[in-house]
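Aim 2, interim progress: modelling of the pyridoxal-5'-phosphate-bound target.
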Amino acid sequence: MLPEWVLQKAAGEMLEYGTSGQSVMEMSHRSKEYQAVFDSCESLLREVMNIPDNYKVLFLQGGASSQFAMIPLNLMNKSGKADYVTTGQWSKKAMAEAKRYGTVNEVASSADKTFSYIPKLDKSMFDPQADYVHITLNNTIYGTKYSELPDTGNVPLVADISSCVLSEPLDVSKFGLLYAGAQKNMGPAGLTVVIIREDLIGNARDITPVMFNYQTHADNGSMYNTPPTYAIYICGLVLEWIKTQIGGLEKMKEINVKKASLLYDFLDSSTLFKGTVEKDSRSLMNIPFVTGDEELDKKFVAESKAAGFVNLKGHRSVGGMRASIYNAMPIEGVEKLVEFMKKFEAENL
Ligand SMILES: *Cc1c(COP(=O)(O)O)cnc(C)c1O
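Predicted structure of the complex, ligand included:
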């Protein structure tokens, strides 16, 4: 979802942005007008996320999936080793890609219990020689989230934050690199945001394609080639919404906790439905649940769809149901869902 406030604003500016005589979509990325749109998006992101000055923000393309390769190409440059924690499909894909470029050590995995928890991580588990440690902070498909960050000592922590970015405050200084496909919580598809500590830029391997080298984009203000101009504009509006309409990430978190608690509290008290994730690993954004009976799950998915609920079917790899309640989902959306689940429960017990 995108906030209606954002869509209304974009609709109002669709034909002409300000007095520029053109739509943002029609602007040259090298024009003065567009540079202002771009700069505003970056400065809002820095402000809202409280990004320290020694970090670069890069606006890229290729999705979070391209980062699975860019990270090892740019960062596996000293020992050629990296530590990965496996907590679901996305972290598995990230690790598989890194294996093409160096020695990958799987530090821990929650595959033994269908990724229903975040493994306990201790500093002694990490290789002090590793070039970085990779985690997936929020696991979109399985609905888990780290409740605390692992202590990796001096080894840079790299995190995929695609499905939790902007959902609550995050201490950027604890990370070497953060990355997110924008389409879950920042804006439309087509934009990938990378936040990288400056000292990690500039040591990519020789074979790295120019477009896959962070230095290329850092040196050119993300304008080495044409960036996803319209997606960046919408991302700027989403950030403006968080800042002016919500009141920042602390407030955003408050709202997200309230939304998620509504659903978790119901799941914990329900006799028909149950959540699939261990309590201390629960995501604020993605909430998977089941009835315990596949036929009943199917019936729920069909009936909820007919009632106007969108995308409640669980990911094809896990089945069941999953409610994704990203930032833009209003609390009323979750209230309506719980109401519907209560009704379904009464009719099917
Ligand atoms: C959606 C998602 C991805 C994939 O993002 P793309 O931009 O489609 O490549 C990767 N990681 C996480 C955690 C995701 O939620």
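The chain has two domains: 4-246, 249-348. The radius of gyration is 21 Å.
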